Every structure is written in structure tokens, then in C-alpha cells.
């Protein structure tokens, strides 16, 4: 059966890295028998330019009917002065909400070939393989009420609401336990239960869910300690689960442990495993259009898509192996340059992955 994917390149380097991922998808079609078709639509600043909205209705409709979504990145300085609800980031939050993508999987894997790219000592990060499961459609990002208001004393105040229902906590906990079951079966839940009531409930619900997963070893950690442990001894972690904002922060820290945010894909899943797949990095307007961006995170996002939404794990393996081969060949984009390696551009990196895959097709 032919699967349909929505392709949303977005802004900045999103356009050129998605173009490389498309080369990979085209080869999966022509050389590996994958039944897939795709349609492209604008989001973020591109959505605003095309339809006056960071998430045009037609884009959301396309994403809704697709089996999976591939996203590049959103944002650019030309959009910074727009009202908040028109900014590119709003498009990203709206599509997460609109598709119900509550479970965000953010792996932090250190490729052995790139060990030198980390700012941490090799012995601290060698072999690193962490999965952060971030709640993506709740918490302080979406809580009501929110706003900026004037007080009687003439001062303005800004306010947001950090709220999680039991249902929201339970479903992200289940998603994290399921993830842990496929890995080393260790789950660390990160909260701020020493200060916040919402975390107290979080801890209680996660603990309750754990009784359905007796094989998974559950631990709890306060978020400040978790941030410290991530840079002190990151290999103690297998899967971490946390709320929207803590996950935003910790996943950036975890990504940088690998020295190569340009390498890391992510998946955002709904209740039924439908997902949106995107690189962890942003739109990097400063290097957009210069053929220097690293397309590997986006290409690896296609692998995650094959695994989590399209039920094609063997093809996911092909992509991941091809990326490994390219790194073995010493090919690097500028962001992951290591000593003695050959630095190439965005398009050449995409071509190198395609060539490595082609060798596996016969
Ligand atoms: C991320 C990003 C987004 C977030 C921004 C761009 C809205 O930082 O995906 O981590 O905060 O979720
Ligand atoms: Mg972030």
C-alpha cells in the first residue's frame, strides 16, 4: 500500500536539508521498492509568506491526511517583529497541537567516528546513547491562563500556567515505558517535585504506571540535578521522561554532549504512532542557502519515520548504515569536522548517503 507523507521544509536551512532527505526517499522508492508519495507545503515563515499564517489551513489538512510528516525547520530574523501569533515558532507549536503529537522522542547518540567533536572528554561520552521522551502538547507551553497584564500599581506582569492532567502524565509515561522496554529498560523521570505541585502529581502518576512495567527500572530525579548529571556522567541514563519545558532544555544539553546537533533526528508521535519527524536543530538563517548545513539529522529523521510510522525497520537500517559508512569514509559537513576528515557541502553529503545506500540495494 502506498504511504503518503507531507513534506514541510519550512525556513532557512530547512529547505536545503529537506531536499537531501528527498533524494533518500526517492531512492527508497526507485531502488528499494518503498511505496511512498509525498506532497510539499509551507510552514513557519514560509507559511506566513504564502498564506499569512505560520500554519496555513491547507498545510494542517495535508499533514492530517498524511501517514507521516517530514519537517525541516522554522524561523528567521525577518519574522522576529511579527505579532506573536504570526511568528514561525507558532506554526510549529500549532502543528504539534493540531496533530496531537504529545510524545517527542529525542535521541542523543554519539557516533564513534565523531567522538572528538564533543566538548566533553571522550571517556565521559564514548558510546553515549540516551533517549529523551519529552511531553510536547501540554505543560507551560500551552497552559491557560497566559499573557501580559497591567496591575493596579501600574506595573505589567507576565504569567503562564504549568498544568498537567493525570491523563496527560499517564500517556507520556506509557510512551516512555514502552520506549524503555525496547532499550535497556531503565527510565528516569525528571521533575521538580520538591517545589511544584504539578511535579508531585507527575511523580505519583509515573510511579503508578510503573506497576504495569515491572521489567523497567524506574528512578526519579529533580531537573536541576538531571542537568548536572547529564554533563557529569551522561552514560548513567537510558531513557529520560519529562515535561515540555524541562524536556526542551535537557534535550539541547543532551544533544550537545554528542558534539553534533546536526546529526540528531527526532520523532513526535500521537496516540496511534502517526508522527512528525524533524531534525533537532533549528533553521540556522546565518548559513542558509550556502550549501554548508548538515543534512544528516533530516536524513536520519526519515529513518525514524520508517521505523515508527511506516513499519519499514529494515529500510531504516539501510539509511542508518549508509550514514555510518559515509562517516567511516571521513566525509563531514563543517559542523562535525574532525581531524583529518574531508569537509563537504550539504548536497554532496546527501549524494554520499545516496551512493552508500545504492551499494546496499544490489
Ligand atoms: C524545540 C524548539 C521549539 C520548542 C521552539 C522553536 C518553539 O526549541 O523544538 O525544541 O521550544 O519546542
Ligand atoms: Mg528547543
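^ Assign residues to that structure.
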Amino acid at each position: 500500500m502506498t504511504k503518503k507523507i507531507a513534506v514541510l521544509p519550512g525556513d532557512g536551512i530547512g529547505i536545503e536539508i529537506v531536499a537531501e532527505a528527498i533524494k533518500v526517499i526517492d531512492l527508497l522508492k526507485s531502488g528499494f521498492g518503498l511505496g511512498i508519495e509525498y506532497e510539499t507545503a509551507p510552514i513557519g515563515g514560509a507559511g506566513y509568506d504564502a498564506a499569512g499564517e505560520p500554519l496555513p489551513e491547507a498545510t494542517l489538512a495535508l499533514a492530517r491526511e498524511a501517514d507521516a510528516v517530514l519537517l525541516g525547520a522554522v524561523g528567521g530574523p525577518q519574522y522576529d517583529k511579527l505579532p506573536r501569533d504570526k511568528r514561525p515558532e507558532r506554526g510549529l507549536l500549532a502543528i504539534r497541537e493540531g496533530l496531537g503529537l504529545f510524545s517527542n522522542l529525542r535521541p542523543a547518540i554519539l557516533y564513534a567516528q565523531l567522538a572528538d567533536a564533543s566538548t566533553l572528554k571522550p571517556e565521559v561520552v564514548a558510546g553515549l546513547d540516551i533517549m529523551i521522551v519529552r511531553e510536547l502538547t501540554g505543560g507551560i507551553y500551552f497552559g491557560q491562563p497566559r499573557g501580559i497584564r497591567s496591575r493596579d500599581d501600574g506595573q505589567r506582569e507576565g504569567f503562564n500556567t504549568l498544568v498537567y492532567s493525570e491523563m496527560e502524565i499517564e500517556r507520556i509515561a506509557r510512551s516512555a515505558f514502552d520506549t524503555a522496554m525496547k532499550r535497556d529498560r531503565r527510565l528516569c523521570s525528571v521533575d521538580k517535585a520538591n517545589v511544584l505541585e504539578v511535579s508531585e502529581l507527575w511523580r505519583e502518576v509515573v510511579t503508578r504506571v510503573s506497576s504495569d512495567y515491572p521489567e523497567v527500572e524506574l528512578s526519579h530525579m529533580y531537573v536541576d540535578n538531571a542537568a548536572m548529571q547529564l554533563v557529569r556522567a551522561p552514560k548513567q541514563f537510558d531513557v529520560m521522561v519529562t515535561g515540555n519545558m524541562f524536556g526542551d532544555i535537557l534535550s539541547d544539553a543532551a544533544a550537545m554532549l554528542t558534539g553534533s546537533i546536526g546529526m540528531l533526528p527526532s520523532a513526535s508521535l500521537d496516540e496511534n504512532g502517526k508522527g512528525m519527524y524533524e531534525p533537532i536543530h533549528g533553521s540556522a538563517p546565518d548559513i542558509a542557502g550556502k550549501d554548508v548545513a548538515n543534512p544528516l539529522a533530516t536524513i536520519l529523521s526519515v529513518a525514524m519515520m520508517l521505523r515508527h510510522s511506516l513499519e519499514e525497520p529494515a529500510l531504516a537500517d539501510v539509511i542508518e548504515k549508509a550514514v555510518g559508512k559515509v562517516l567511516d569514509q571521513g566525509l563531514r559537513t563543517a559542523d562535525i569536522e574532525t581531524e583529518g576528515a574531508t569537509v563537504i557541502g550539504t548536497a554532496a553529503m546527501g549524494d554520499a548517503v545516496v551512493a552508500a545506500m545504492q551499494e546496499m540495494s544490489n
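The CA atoms of residues 218 and 362 lie 44 Å apart.
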